[in-house]
Structures are given as C-alpha cells and as structure tokens.
Design brief:
Strand content: under 5%
Number of helices: 16
Shape: globular
Order of helices and strands: HHHEEHHHHHHHHHHHHH
C-alpha cells in the first residue's frame, strides 16, 4: 500500500485515536513509576508564558485549560451540528442526554454521601459526579461503525452536559473566590459572539478572536476555562442544508485531526502520570475508595439509565435512533470514566491532605478502568451484526 494512502486511512479511522490515547496512558503511567518521574513532573510544572496580562502558567495548565478548550470546541461543534440537522434535531432526542446527565450526577453523589456522611471524606461528594469526556469518547470511538452513530452522539452530549454540571459544582462549592469582573466580561464576550451569529457573520476568524478573549476572561474569573470552547462552538453559524458547507462544518473538519491525534494524546500523557504507592492501595477499601468506585460505576450506570427510563416513560424523550437498552447500559458504564475531572475535584476537595488525595486518585483510576472495560465489552457484544457506515 502506498505510504500516503496508509496514513490517510489511519487518520480517518475513528479507532486510531482511541488506540493512541490508551498507548499514551500506559506511557504516562510507566514514566510516573520510573526514574524519569521527577523530571517529567518538573517539566509539567515549568512556567511558560508572560507575566504581562497574567499569562504565565505551568505547562500542565496550558494543556488542561488551553488545549482542552480546543477539544471542547470540537465536541461543541459536533453537538451543535447534530442539534441543527442530525440525531439531536428533535426535542425528544435532544432532551434525553440532559435527563441522563442529571441522573448521572445526582445518583453518584448520593451513593458517595451514603458511604462518607459525617466522615473526614464527606467533602468529596463531587468526585464521582464527573465524566471524563476525552477518555469516554476515545473508548467508544474504538468500536467504530459497530455501534450506531446516535449512541456516540448521545454519549458526547451527555458528557458535555455532565462536564458543564461539574464545572458549575466546582464554581459554586469548590472555588474559593469568583472574580465577578472577569465573569461579567465573559458574559459580554459571549453576547458579542451570538450577536455576530445573529448578524449572519460567516468569517470564522471573527469568532475565534473574541473566543480567545472569552477563554482569557473565564480563566481569570476562577471558572474552568474549557467552557469557553463550548460557548464559542454554539455561537458559530451552521445550516440545516447538506448542500452548502457552513462555517461550523469547515472548522469542525479542520480541527478533527489535530484534536484527535495531538491534543488528546498530549492530554493523556500529562494527566495520567500517577505514581503508585502502598498507601493508595489501602485506601481502596476505605469508605472514600468505596464511595468513589461505587459512585462512578454503579452511580453513573443507575443514574443515567434510571433518569433516561423515566424521561422515556413520560414521553419527554426517546431512545437514540437504532439503539437499545443494552447499549444504554454500556454508555452508562463508559460515563463512569471519571478520571481527570474527578481527580481535579479530589484535589480541590482535600487540599493539604496529600495522603487522601493519593487514595482518591487510585480509587478513581480503578473505577475508570473497570468502567471502561465493562462499557466497551457490553457495547461490543450488544452491537454484533450492527454495522453502520461511518460519517466522514
């Protein structure tokens, strides 16, 4: 096979990005537990940027708050396109991820609280509420065309709503101070972006520049800046026509390869460098570990499917097209991949408590691994014989 054709096929294969992501996770874990661990951590802590306008951050912050905002931009573009012309264009389909996400946040928090109410771990109730959108989408992408596209879109929409909910929880319960001036400036830039859409401005650069200011203001407000990517995505114009390529579709096409094969692997390398210790293992059987593991695996599974069932029985929503309840169970499990967002909330929940942080990290890693494997297996088994052509 011609080398250029091989690479083209590789980059167009939705399974490739998931394989690379998992490989990066293994590399990161290996580095974190080798003699290179300290050097790698020093690199991530290295300050980069300029003190002018307060843009001097560690490498890890540029990746988690900067590059991941671009990831959220791409996912936001995909969700908006589906809302306008695809799987989420009907109210019943669009409402299901919202109901599912609410259940997927509330039930895990309740389960964690049942284990830890009145203990020193009680402040960590937000840990199992989060879904790691990057890893959950990477795992489901490895199934390729074996599952309906509607299931992938459902998980993406669910994960975005879930992450927005987690960001709100962080802002309200775990952020020490909100800088209201920057937050008001963020609202102003958001209004400007949607005004541009209303005025039918189609030049993408005229959205990107205000979007960068939106990221800056949100980051300085104290709220997780990745939400800027979603807000920017929803302001970019599209259309319901398959004939004319919209600005949204053009940008989505340009972002696909750099996000899938650069940003997500870099994210995985820098966020899974967990150094194992004996103290971590003992924490798994504590109420902290059990609350996190049961919250992420059982809580997400029960919450997402219970609230989805209620919404469908009340005729407020309908199952994603060509899907079944077994696949919904698989999605509920994949949503239990809490990982980086859960770890972030754990660090905020137990500041200055390094031992508890380490125990929480290991419990999150165990829960996310189990959720990923079970979710993948159930979706794979339930989807045998269901071969759907992949979209370009």
């Amino acid at each position: 096979m011609n080398l250029s054709l091989y690479f083209k096929k590789f980059f167009n294969n939705s399974q490739s990005s998931g394989i690379i992501l998992i490989f990066c996770v293994l590399v990161s874990l290996f580095i974190a537990n080798s003699s290179a661990a300290e050097s790698f951590q020093r690199f991530l802590d290295q300050q980069v940027g300029t003190h002018l306008f307060g843009l001097n951050y560690p490498v890890s912050i540029w990746i988690n708050d900067g590059l991941m905002a671009v990831f959220f931009l791409l996912v936001g573009l995909e969700i908006k396109r589906e809302l306008v012309e695809g799987e989420l264009s009907s109210f019943k389909n669009a409402s299901l991820p919202i109901f599912a996400a609410v259940g997927g946040m509330l039930v895990p928090a309740v389960i964690y609280t049942l284990f830890n109410a009145g203990t020193e771990y009680s402040n960590g109730w937000g840990i199992p509420m989060a879904t790691d959108i990057a890893f959950s989408l990477a795992i489901i992408s490895m199934l390729g065309k074996r599952i309906p596209n509607s299931i992938k879109i459902f998980l993406a929409a669910l994960a975005i709503v879930d992450d927005l909910g987690a960001i709100l929880v962080i802002a309200i319960f775990y952020t020490e101070q909100i800088h209201w001036t920057y937050l008001l400036l963020s609202f102003g830039v958001t209004a400007l972006l949607f005004l541009l859409n209303f005025l039918k401005v189609t030049k993408i650069i005229l959205y990107i520049i205000p979007g960068m200011f939106l990221w800056y203001f949100l980051h300085h407000s104290g709220i997780h800046a990745t939400i800027a990517g979603v807000l920017l995505a929803f302001s970019i114009p599209t259309n319901a026509s398959n004939v004319e390529i919209s600005p949204l579709e053009k940008l989505e096409h340009k972002l696909h390869i750099p996000v899938s094969f650069m940003i997500m692997p870099i994210f995985a390398l820098t966020n899974t460098n967990i150094t194992f210790s004996n103290d971590m293992v003992t924490g798994v059987t504590s109420t902290l570990g059990l609350g996190i593991i049961c919250g992420l695996i059982l809580g997400k599974l029960i919450g997402i499917n219970l609230f989805s069932l209620i919404a469908i029985k009340l005729k407020l929503s309908s199952l994603p097209q060509n899907s079944n309840w077994t696949q919904m169970i698989g999605v509920g499990l994949l949503a239990g991949i809490g990982f980086t967002m859960s770890i972030f909330i754990a660090l905020l929940s137990f500041k200055e408590e390094v031992l508890i942080q380490d125990e929480a990290k290991f419990a999150i890693l165990i829960a996310s691994f189990i959720a990923a494997v079970l979710g993948y297996l159930i979706l794979s088994i339930s989807s045998k014989g269901n071969m759907e052509p992949e979209e370009d």
